[in-house]
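Input protein
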Amino acid sequence: MDTYIVDTSPFVGLAKVGLLSILTVGGREVVVPDEVAREVLAGAAEDAAKQALREGWGVRAATGALPPALAALRLGAGEAAVLAVALARSGSIAVMDDSEGRAVARELGVPVMGTVGVLLRAKQQGHLAAVAPAVRALQSTGLFLPKAGLLQTLLAAVGETWP
């Protein structure tokens, strides 16, 4: 089974709506790079993702020195760390919503998916009954999501409609 290397936005968003466990379905390992953990731990005390980290959720990973291909780019610390860890761990998928980070992942040959992709995959594997309610909940938290037309296409692929 593949491993998810999770960035801050998907981690915080899924935690806020009570769906953090969707990342670990089927015993999947979820890795939280130290840079992502630092970003999460800087959040509000009542933040669900912060609480999850404090309770030991996920596997922490040190990044060390960034590979030259990543160090030269203008990615955020979390995105760069996610990609560095994903490059070092065969069979991993970078989970990030940042469009620039996702583009770099594709250029580097790192499999990547966003928060909505994680939800779609969970539904396809029988671990989530419906994606649309989860997307609405994520929207209410302020998480940036794909445009309505793309959401319609993605949800149609799993037999759902948007909005």
